[in-house]
Amino acid sequence: xxxxxxxxxxxxxxxxxxxxxxxxxxxxxxxxxxxxxxxxxxxxxxxxxxxxxxxxxxxxxxxxxxxxxxxxxxxxxxxxxxxxxxxxxxxxxxxxxxxxxxxxxxxxxxxxxxxxxxxxxxxxxxxxxxxxxxxxxxxxxxxxxxxxxxxxxxxxxxxxxxxxxxxxxxxxxxxxxxxxxxxxxxxxxxxxxxxxxxxxxxxxxxxxxxxxxxxxxxxxxxxxxxxxxxxxxxxxxxxxxxxxxxxxxxxxxxxxxxxxxxxxxxxxxxxxxxxxxxxxxxxxxxxxxxxxxxxxxxxxxxxxxxxxxxxxxxxxxxxxxxxxxxxxxxxxxxxxxxxxxxxxxxxxxxxxxxxxxxxxxxxxxxxxxxxxxxxxxxxxxxxxxxxxxxxxxxxxxxxxxxxxxxxxxxxxxxxxxxxxxxxxxxxxxxxxxxxxxxxxxxxxxxxxxx
Length: 450
Prior knowledge:
single chain, alpha/beta, 4-stranded antiparallel sheet, 16 helices, globular
């Protein structure tokens, strides 16, 4: 890495899966407001649904997700009971047409920690309450170590079409350091089960910046992953936040690669994947040519939300489960993170939402600017401002904010258009922050740019 880029790589900046970001959500946000937003949706509104399952069979030391390891399965079974009650309560409020859920996504945690019966009950509750659209995407995250041929068939029979695996790195020394042992052969077998069962899309998550990783090991992992031809590959930098995620204390700070090594690892993975036929998508995704994400990126119709890059253009994102985040035209909502508080609100037949944010017209305008930059690596902010009824002069300070970034080539201004060169896509978040009026630089609040 050119040393001129080092200060930008060290910056703590949001991931911009939303704008304003979750840091800005207000505590004690009224669950009634969330219900009112649901009721006010247009009758023909298209929907996405996110279901959060906060359980895993064991913790991976690198994990930053809201999850835990239950003492017994009974805890998960009770959670499902409450989850279904909340789905039914919300569905009773919704006055729109049924059958317009275009995307259903199970995240976690590890959704396949649940047994098949409980997963089927959740899918059925959503279908009966809101209606799954014919041909819609039904996706879930899974652990390849627990997937069998029979289970792949059962999941496909429930309507699941896409699945995501946390691969991270195939090198055994790395896996031992992060408490996630899974051989290439195991992942290959799981991939084969899914293809045989009829899954049309498989996603692998890879990471850089983990202990014991080297440029050589991440290059080898990228090549091994591509051998299995997953339709999409996501590449994330490990965020070490042991003060926030206590289990990360199991990872020795001294064994983590520095920023120069992290940059080399990230760019090496990108180079390998692109040479193996994957298109670079936005900040950190890669996809094969046939994938709809590749096509959406080329057409500049790709979107970005809490699940990352997507083709989802639904009018609202409904969320169910502890800590789950939803989005309405009026703003964002988040359920209680604590499962006890979450379940107590459901017991009282209330919305479990405890945090949220009503967005302003300016927020929504800036959100579109940031989203287009994160998706397309290029944006004309003035045009978007005018589209939303704002004077383009509202962005008169952006070029000054980006003066240093422009000097080193991370950003380019050509007329009214701002562009991040593809070779500097890792710095997209840094450039996007120039449009964020809520952002205040603070150590340890966000992940490093690289």
